[in-house]
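Q: I'm writing a short explainer about Luciferase-like monooxygenase for a general audience and would like to include a description of its predicted shape. Could you first generate the structure from this sequence?
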Amino acid sequence: MRLSVLDQSVACVGRPQDESIRHTVALAEHCERLGYERFWLSEHHSLPAIVGTAPEVLMAAIAVRTARIRIGSAGVMLPHYSPFKVAEQFRVLDALAPGRIDLGVGRAPGSDHRTARLLNPDPRSANHFPQQVRELQAWVSGEEMPEGHPGRGIQALPRAVTAPQLWMLGSSSYGAQLAAHYGLPYSFAHFISDGEGCAEALELYRQLFKPGLVQRPEANVCVWALAADTEEEAWRLFASRERARVDRQTGRFGPLLPPEQAVRPYDAAEEAFRQGLRARSFVGTGEQVVQRLRALAEALEIEEVVVITWTWDPLAQRRSYELLAGAAGLS
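A: Of course. Here's the predicted structure. Afterward I'll give you a sentence or two in plain language.
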């Protein structure tokens, strides 16, 4: 089992938001030293809990501070943008880190609808997503556009021996089908749905897959996990994430609270959700969490798990990745 990382630059109570961005860059350097396969960055807009708004900018900062680890977007919310401009941005990134750039794209807005309209005033922009993906794939790989396409003869520069690796992201069957149709690698956001629909989406992807950018199905899943030196300490740290998830059920979003401030009384419905969340969560010592991740990987027949971890204390987040790397035998 290979392990990778997704980081969202989470906002934290009592800490300036710009620190979260710098913590992300430092975490990428740390995870490269630990032997992780990739380091991916998400895109969200006007969300009080997450300040990672521009993955391509963060990727550039990380590219010049690392030498081995793959760096990627998870992802660029393509309906907001011109595929040609995205291709140019990621070709520049590939020039900074040749052969190490992953270009993960998604259809979701990564924001509320008002914010999405500010990014792209066209309310039907998501309807063009399949065509956008096809255009992006062509410009990234250097293919010529078909006869009659307005972009025929236009090149996304700089050109190089290597090129960004396109990935399709999703948390439903839609992304799985599109990835299969275009022959793209596919990543399922297990942490968004708590695993609901994951096995079905991967099975659909494999059944419908047609060779394209890759010749055989290539998939991973992104899982929320947290490890600490003791199981008790892991659950104590989990209180911050737990509170955020419970609050989100009722539309309350805000910076991550320290564990000691995160505990509050829950009503019956909230408590039921909380207990279900705890039962589904990958929390414990490094060995305990890696054992569960291996079991998930075997059940889903995948070779790579991408881990996302929220903690109020960045040192606790780094320690979690250290423990998982040690238990998984990363080098």
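A: For your explainer, you could say: The first strand starts at residue 2 and ends at 7.
Q: Perfect, that's easy to follow.
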